[in-house]
Specification:
Layout lengths: L1 H22 L3 E3 L9 E3 L6 E5 L11 E8 L5 E10 L7 E6 L2 E2 L14 E4 L4 E7 L8 E9 L12 E3 L5 E3 L23
Parallel strand pairs: 1-3, 2-4
Antiparallel strand pairs: 3-10, 4-9, 5-8, 5-10, 6-7, 6-9, 11-12
Length: about 200
């Protein structure tokens, strides 16, 4: 009887770990993507990503890195949420976020420092992240998400694979309950259970 209970518990644990691992977003690092191809987010294969500045504990000095995103469809928009920022050398290091050619994070407190969570939804189909650092002391950088927003989908129907955020962003249901804030208001992580 004890052997069956242990076997059942082991199976439940494996299934729970498998579900959690399946929901974990693939990790992307800006310093490995600098100057590469434009990342196209689409509703099926890549509806959003989780992005960190570096896989190291601290970013490198003298970085000048640009990563570009665009939507697959002209009716889609992009939601960018900076979840954590640790860019301490504000005199020389900064993250600038562009919607096409328009700077979104005009407030210097959202370009460097230890800012609280902030979110922008683009008006265009293009997003650019520009990070620059000088030769001084570096820190850990940032963590963010970039997700597709489907503003033209009426009512954002969950039965068709969408998730309606409290802030009215409509994202892919694939991005809910993965431990990252794709909505911008974290409502995609509010009612999650892995049991």
């Amino acid at each position: 009887m004890a052997t069956k209970a242990i076997l059942l518990f082991s199976c439940i644990l494996i299934v729970t770990i498998s579900i959690a691992a399946a929901k974990s977003p693939e990790k992307y690092y800006m310093d490995k993507m600098c100057g590469g191809d434009v990342i196209i987010l689409d509703g099926d294969n890549k509806p959003g990503i989780a992005l960190q500045l570096t896989s190291s504990s601290k970013y490198k000095p003298n970085m000048n890195c640009v990563v570009k995103f665009r939507t697959a469809q002209p009716s889609q928009r992009l939601v960018v949420t900076v979840e954590k920022m640790d860019i301490t050398d504000c005199a020389g290091d900064s993250l600038r976020i562009y919607d096409g050619t328009t700077l979104l994070n005009k407030d210097v407190k959202q370009q460097c420092g230890s800012s609280s969570v902030f979110t922008y939804t683009t008006a265009s189909t293009q997003l650019s992240l520009n990070f620059a650092s000088n030769a001084a002391i570096e820190s850990s950088g940032y963590q963010m998400t970039v997700a597709l927003d489907f503003p033209m989908i009426a009512a954002c129907p969950q039965n068709l694979g969408f998730f309606l955020c409290k802030n009215r962003n409509c994202i892919s249901k694939q991005l809910s309950c993965d431990g990252r804030n794709h909505c911008g208001d974290a409502t995609d992580e509010n009612q999650c259970s892995f049991g």
